[in-house]
Amino acid sequence: METLFIKGGRRLEGSVEISTAKNAILPILAASIMCDGCVKIIKCTRYLDVDNMLKILEDIGCEIAFDKDDVYIKTGNLHKSYIKDEFSKKVRSSIFMLGPMLSRFKCAKVAYPGGCNIGSRPIDLHLKGLRMLNVKIEERHGYIYCDGRNMKPNIVHLDFPSVGATENVMMASIFLKGFTTIYNAACEPEIEDLQNFLNAMGAKISGGGTSTIVVEGVERLYSGEYTPISDRIIAGTYMIACAMAQGNIRLTNVIPEHNLSLISNLKQSGCRIKMLTNEVQMFCNKRISAVPKIETQVFPGFPTDLQNQMLVLQTISRGTSIITENLFETRFKIVNELLKMGADITIHNKSAIVRGVSQLYGANVTASDLRGGAGLILAGLVAQGYTTISEAEHIDRGYKNIESDLCKLNVDIKRL
Ligand code: EPZ
Questions:
Q1: Would you give the end-to-end CA distance of the chain in angstroms?
Q2: What is the pTM of this model?
Q3: If you take atom 34 of ligand 1, which residue's CA is the nearest one?
Q4: What is the pLDDT of residue 380?
């Protein structure tokens, strides 16, 4: 069990480079099994979720090699078209192995996926999208059996712009002769990054990052190398950290356009933010004013993956904030832990009403999911005294050595 220990009260000063995006790397790793030969993922950050995904690839026959921050994936000996329960249960991203396995093997079997316990996490949109490509799907005894021998290109309209379902349909249609069009596709930057990876390997996809994606089927995908985009959620987490603890920080390897909703809110709260080509400089020298209303939306709206971190910021703001979580029904688990630290929060249906207090107090708290755990670290930055965060392995799923990043920003944090 991992525990983090933070002494609150320091201003943030310094610079840190943002690592490549977990939610870009995961679908790219899944897609790599459709490529002949060897794929090199440059700066493939080894988050816990990424390591679990690499174990899945290894289990179905990929040869994985590491060279410093780069990962090589050889796909010549792929021999299995099903994912073991122990792996499926560990990461949500196991579900978007369906598309690549259907493209490669014309069949697939996976157990229902695991991942953060932030809601029911249904997969109906994935299965409906694949059925529109004429995949025969049976669900029995907790497994999903897919028969893709008669897959055909088609027009696929998603009832909701699901990130994973968009990725699955994109990858399942790669080799289908003709044109597949996805309407109401997710617009998250990680979708465009997946498109750019696949096109670099020989695919013909357009519209990634918009709500209409067109895939022209090709014969095969080739070997190649690719560097995933920067992690916008990690960058956003550290920007919120600076608004919490105040100070002056510089984040490099950042794509500011991927965080415009957050940046606009932080500026309105009183922070000064300078956006450069692949860098953000942030200055905050006073207690921020509350953001009256925050509603999580699909991209480019306010991201659900920054909701907990923003909620924590509001606990010490001047004023009251109403935060509504529209995507995941149990993404307020952090609230009970924040109440132990002196926050003033009440939950009403899908909303948290947060009244800013002048001080939080150190406590022993427990992380229950990835982004909630990151939020507890932010609370510890400003809490009076010491805060310990147990079950920090949740945080390691999406932040690589978060304590080393934060130490570069002058935070007094260590892993016990
Ligand atoms: C991806 O999850 C991300 N994970 C999540 O990040 C992120 O919160 C989410 O997109 C939204 O941006 C990865 O990319 C690995 P969705 P995903 O399908 O694909 C509903 C993190 O912290 N839905 O876009 O699972 C669903 O319940 C993680 O890094 C269905 O109803 O998200 C939710 O309400 C957490 N049926 C909404 O759609 C389905 O078949 C958005 O889910 C699929 C989804």
A1: 10
A2: 0.97
A3: 327
A4: 98
